[in-house]
Amino acid sequence: MGEINVGLLGCGTVGTGVARILIENRELLRTRIGTYINLKRVADIDIQRDRGLQFDEGVLITDAYQVVNDPSIDIIIEMIGGESIAKDLILKAIENGKQVVTANKALLASQGQTLIRAAAAKGVDLAFEASVGGCMPIVKTLRESLAGNHIESMIGILNGTCNYILTKITDEGCPFETALAEAQAQGYAEADPTLDIEGLDTAHKIAILAALGYGMEINLKDVYTEGISRIKPLDIEFADQFGYKIKLLAISKIIDQAVEARVHPTMIPSHDLLSNVSGTLNAITIRADAVGEILLYGHGAGMMPTASAVVSDIVDLARNLLFGSIGRIPTLSSQTSHIKKIPVLAMDEIRTHYYFRFEALDRPGVLSKISGILGRYGISIQSVHQKGRKSNGSVPVVMLTHRAKEADVRKALTEISGLDVVSAQPVLIRIEDERE
Ligand code: HSE
Fold first, then answer.
1. For the chain, how long is the longest CA-to-CA vector?
2. Cβ atoms of residues 315 and 321 within 8 Å
3. Number of domains present in the structure of the chain
4. Which atom of ligand 1 is closest in space to residue 188's alpha carbon?
5. Are residues 109 and 245 in the same domain?
6. How much of the chain is in helix, strand and coil states, percent to nearest 5?
7. Residue 266: inside a domain
C-alpha cells in the first residue's frame, strides 16, 4: 500500500485543527507512519471562510457524501457532530469499507452499538480517542495500556466548560452567566451549552468509558446526570470551609455485578489531585487491580488538543492499513463476543456521603426536628454548621453526613422540606471522600 488518503467531514474548530496538523506536520507524520497522509478532501457547508490554511485546489467541497463515496479515500474523519447526518455518513463510510475516526461522543453514547456492529460486520476500524477528554489518551489507555487489568473505578473531570465555570466562580466569585459566556467565547462549550452545564456531555463520556473499562454495552440512559446550574457561590464557600472543592465529576465504579455510572457536582477534598485541576483542564483517575491508581491530565477541549487526539487515531488506522492489521484492537477493548450487558446501579441504591444545606428558621428545636427525620431514615450526621442570622429569620444550616443510602436521603429531604420551619428546597451535594 502506498500513501494514505483521508477525507475530513466538517471543518469547524476541531476539524480545522486536524487539517492543520495533517498539513503542517506532514513530514513528521511520515516519519511516524512510513508514508504520507494526504488530506484528499474536506467537506464543509462553508468553504469560503479563511481557516488560515492553504488547501490544495479542489480539496474543499460542500458535499460530504462525495467524500465518503470517493473510492480513493481510505480513512474518513467525522467532525460534523450531531446525531443524524453524522450517523448516516459514518454508516455509509463503513459500508464503503473505509476506516472511520470520530470525536462524536453524543452519537457514540446513544448509538455506538449500531456503529460498532456495522464496523465489525464490515471488518473496518472505528476509532474515537477524541470523544472523551480531548487530548488525554484515555481510550488508548483503557484499550491497550491497561489490557491486563480489571478496571475497578474511573473518576474524572470530563467537561472543560463546567470546570472552567466552577473554577472561575471559585477563584473570582464571578457570576455563572459571565463564566459561561466566556467559556463559549473561547470555543470550549458545545453549540448547545446546556449539554455541558446540565452534565449530558459528561454523561456521554462516562457511558463510553464504562463500556471500554468494564467490557459492557454502552448504556447512556441509565447514567444518572445532574449539572452545575444550581450550584450557588454560598455552597462553594461552605465547601471551602470544610476543606472541599466542588467539581462536576463523572464517577464510575464496579460494585459486585453492577456498575455505578453517575455525573453530578461533587465535593472532593481540596488536597485531592482532581481538586487541583483548574480551568478547562480535564483529568481522570483510573483504579485497576494491577496498576493501582493512575491519573491522566490534560486539555479536554479546544482546537489543537482535541485535534491531536483525532490525529493519533488517524495514525493508528493508517498503521493498521499499512500492516494489514485492521481489527487487531477491538473497538470496545474486549472481543465483541465478550461484551456483556452489565446493569447500571439505580441512583437510589448508591451509598455515599452528603452535604445538605437547609434554609431554616432560627428558632429553638429546629435542628432537632431536622436531625430527628434524618435519624429515622438511618442517616448519621457527621457535623452541623449554622451561619449568621438573616433578616427574615432564616439561616443556612449545613450538615455533612456519614455514608448513607440515596433512597433514604431523598425520602428524608422530602419530609424535611415539608417542615414549616424550613423555607426553601434543601440543597444536596454528594461528597467523594475516601478518608471517610
Ligand atoms: N464541550 C466540551 C467540554 C468539549 O467543555 O469539555 C469537549 O468534549
1. 82
2. no
3. 3
4. 5
5. no
6. 40, 25, 35
7. yes
Residue 101 sits in the same domain as residue 121: yes
Measuring from atom 4 of ligand 1, which residue has the nearest CA? 301
Q: Cell digits for 278? A: 483548574
Domain holding 379, by residue range, is: 348-431
- Residue 327: CB partners within 8 Å, gap ≥ 6? 120, 123, 125, 320
* Nearest atom (ligand 1) to Cα of 134: 7
Categorise residue 21: left if φ over 0, alpha if ψ from -120 to 50, beta otherwise.
alpha
- Give the pTM: 0.95
Burial of 290 (0-12, 13-18, 19+ CB in 10 A): exposed
Query: Alpha-carbon distance 265 to 166, whole Å?
Result: 10
pLDDT at 177: 85
**Separation between Cα atoms, residue 135 and residue 80, nearest integer Å:** 18
Q: How many whole angstroms from its chain centre is CA 370?
A: 36
Q: Is 414 helix (H, G, I), strand (E, B) or coil?
A: helix
Average pLDDT over residues 288-314: 96
**Spatial separation of the C-alpha atoms in residues 125 and 329, rounded to whole Å:** 9
What digits encode the pLDDT tens for the residues 343-390?
A: 999 999 999 999 999 999 888 888 999 999 999 999 999 999 987 656
Length reported for the chain: 436
- What are the grid coordinates assigned to 3, written together? 500513501
For the question of residue 369 being annotated catalytic, the response is no
DSSP 180: H
Pair (414, 265) in one structural domain: no
Indicate if the pLDDT at residue 188 is higher than 80. no
Considering the domain architecture, whether residues 75 and 12 belong to the same structural domain is answered as yes
Same domain, 360 and 324: no
Q: Which residues line ligand 1 (CB under 6 A)?
A: 134, 159-161, 188-190, 196, 201, 300-301
| Cell reading at 66 | 462525495
How far, in Å, is the centroid of ligand 1 from the Cα of 219? 20
**What residues have CB less than 8 Å from 247, skipping those under 6 apart?**
157, 163, 166, 265, 266, 268, 274, 275, 277
| CATH code of the domain in which 412 resides | 3.30.70.260
Catalytic choice (168, 205, 247, 253): 205
| Contacts of residue 286, Cβ cutoff 8 Å, sequence gap at least 6 | 141, 142, 146, 151, 153, 154, 213, 293, 294, 295, 296
